[in-house]
Amino acid sequence: MEGIVSDYNLNEGEFILLQEENVRLRDNDGMGDDPLEEVVLTNESLILVRNVPTGLFKSKRSIMRCPLNHLVCQTGHPQLTIMRRSKRPYLRIPFSDGTIELRFDNESQHHAQSWADNIAHAAQGEFDEVRKDNALVASVMSLPGAEEAAAVANDLFAGMRRAARRKKLSD
Q1: Which residues of the chain are modeled with pLDDT < 50?
Q2: Is domain 5-170 given the CATH code 1.10.600.10 in the classification?
Q3: Taking all residues of the chain, what is their mean pLDDT, rounded to a whole number?
C-alpha cells in the first residue's frame, strides 16, 4: 500500500490497525459499486479512500472518515451484518448518519466477516483482538525484527491509551 500516514489526516493518538485495497463501496442509488483506493481501519475511524474524477483526465483523492463512535450499537455491540446481493457478500456498516456497504474483491464471506469482527473490536477499544490477517500485514510481519517492533509499538499505544483514559476520568 502506498498510503502515508499523513495522507489520512490522522488525529493525535490515532493509529492504523488494518488497511486493504481492492474494496468497493456500494453506490447511494444502489445501482452499482464504486472502487475504493483503499479502506483503513484505525483505533478511531473507518477511512474510505477513493479517487474522484475532477475532469477528463484528472482526479482528486477523497478521504471519507467514518468515526467508530458513530456506529449504531445495540447492547453495546456494533450492528454490523454480512448480506448477499447478486451472490456477493457485502459488509453493511450502519452509522448514526447513514449506512455504508463494502464489497471486498475477493468475494469471500469469511473475509467480510473478519472485517466486521475487526471493526467491532476496534469500536470497543479491543485493539489487541484485531486480527491482522491481510496481505500487507503478513508481508510486513515477515520482515526481520517486525515482531519485536510490533510488540514495542503495541506496548507504547497501550500506555498511551491508559494515560488518555486516566486523563479523561480526571477531567
Answers
A1: 1-6, 134-139, 142
A2: no
A3: 81
For residue range 131-153, what is the model confidence (pLDDT) as tens digits?
866 444 444 554 566 667 766 77
Of 56, 42, 31, give the one whose Cα is nearest residue 9: 42
Closest CA to 105 of 28, 40, 2, 24: 24
Report the side by side order of strands in the sheet with 38-42.
Answer: 16-20, 38-42, 45-53, 59-67
Report which of 101, 99, 78 is spatially closest to residue 90, judged by C-alpha positions.
101
The per-residue pLDDT for 85 is 82
Total count of residues recorded for the chain = 171
From residue 77, give the alpha-carbon distance in Å to each of 7, 45, 69, 93.
30, 16, 11, 12
- Copy the grid coordinates of residue 80: 454490523
